[in-house]
Structure formats: C-alpha cells, structure tokens
Write a structure and sequence with these properties.
The complex is a heterodimer. By secondary structure, chain A is mainly beta. Helices cover 0% and strands 47% of the residues of chain A. In chain A, strands 2, 5, 6, 9, 10 and 11 form a six-stranded mixed sheet that branches. A three-stranded antiparallel sheet of chain A has the order 3-8-7, with no helix packed on it. In chain A, a hairpin with a 2-residue loop joins β9 and β10. Chain B is mainly β. Chain B is built from no helices and eleven strands. In chain B, strands 2, 4, 5, 6, 9, 10 and 11 form a seven-stranded mixed sheet that branches. The chains are: A mainly beta, B mainly beta.
C-alpha cells in the first residue's frame, strides 16, 4: 500500500538555524506531494505542493523521485515556524498523510 | 468566501450511542473528505464524497458512514460508539473531485469524546 513516512516525531532547532523535515513516500507512479501545516489552535492548511515549485514562508521542498523523498527545508528557522507539519501523498483519487513532525523552534 | 464549517465543535457521548457530525464545504466546492485525527494514529482518511456519491473509502469499519447532500454539505455518522472512536474528526473540501491532485481546505474539526 502507498504510504508516507516522516522519521522524526519531534524536531527541535534554535532560531536562525537551518531546518529540514524529512518525508519519504512509496508509490511507483507519478505522485502529487504536499506539505500541510497546523499551527497551535489553527486549522490544518496547505503550506506548499510540489507542482507549484514555490517558496512559502521561506520553506521549499523538492521532489526527488529517485530517492522517493520530498523533504521540507528552510535556511533560517523562526519561532513562528513552530507547528505540526504533515507530508501528504496524492495518487489518483487517493490521499494519504504521513504521521507528522512537530517542529519546535527555540529562542 | 466562508471557510469549511464543522458542527458541532465538541461532542461527548457514551459507549453504544451514535453520533452525527456535519460539514459545510466552501461555496462551490463539490468534494468533501473526512479524516480522523488521533495522537496515536495521526490523520487517517475515512471517505470522500463528490456530487453526492462516495468515491473513496478508507479502512474503517462499517460503523462509520457518511452522505452528501445536493448542496454539497456532508454528514458523517458513527454508530455503536466505542472508546477508541474518541478523536478529532476533520472535514476537508476541494473544488474538484479526486483529492489526489487538489488542494484540500480543512475545517476546525469536531472533537468527539466517548465515555
């Protein structure tokens, strides 16, 4: 079955440090990859998707089909980036979320 | 545009009871998906409706069911509640069917507690 893995349940970094949230997926076809974010007391929302190839709030993510990865990166973390991040895979009419990584940016 | 609206926000039920949750999608959106979110299992897909038809279903028992009305509003029903059904239930809408490619917009959720 198709699945998404995010190896880190919790990732803590200091403000200004680079951050990378890892995401790997298993799917042999052409995937649609997304990153969703849930800030404290806010609803789950889209951060970015691979087909847009854009930077949102300083975050970027590159789809690496060879490594089946879609890691989320930001060169300089900010305290307001602290949140729960979910990687998600869309295939056909299906959609599956990874388990999530809680990012904590320390002052 | 108003966002995705879920009612009620909180529910407390006892084992064996049934419950109905409601979701109003963003105006013009025809696809509604439901997810169960728990600390242990994360976000798990329940089912998706598009134009009143269930197009996709996750791996949940038949106690979990849903429907969609002609105005795209959706309801989810859970019968014979179990303690393990305690969770945050999220609804998401998208403009087109086939959640695989489309951005989903989430509601704030209904928190169900089963005692």
């Amino acid at each position: 079955a198709q699945r998404v893995t995010q190896p880190e349940k919790l990732l803590s970094v200091f403000k200004g440090a680079p951050v990378e949230l890892k995401c790997n997926y298993s799917y042999s076809g052409s995937p649609e990859l997304f990153w969703y974010v849930q800030y404290s007391r806010q609803r789950l929302q889209l951060l970015l998707r691979h087909i847009s190839r854009e930077s949102i709030k300083g975050f970027t993510a590159d789809l690496n089909k060879g490594e089946t990865s879609f890691h989320l990166k930001k060169p300089f973390a900010q305290e307001e980036d602290s949140a729960m991040y979910y990687c998600a895979l869309g295939y056909g009419q299906n959609f599956v979320f990874g388990p999530g990584t809680r990012l904590s940016v320390l002052p | 545009k108003a966002g995705v609206t879920q009612t009620p926000r909180y529910l407390i039920k006892t084992r064996g009871q049934q419950v109905t949750l409601s979701c109003s999608p963003i105006s013009g959106h025809r696809s509604v998906s439901w997810y169960q979110q728990t600390p242990g299992q994360g976000l798990q897909f329940l089912f998706e409706y598009f134009s009143e038809t269930q197009r996709n279903k996750g791996n949940f028992p038949g106690r979990f069911s849903g429907r969609q009305f002609s105005n795209s509003r959706s309801e989810m029903n859970v019968s014979t509640l179990e303690l393990g059904d305690s969770a945050l239930y999220l609804c998401a809408s998208s403009s087109q069917g086939g959640t695989g490619k489309n951005i989903q917009y989430f509601g704030a959720g209904t928190r169900l507690s089963v005692l």
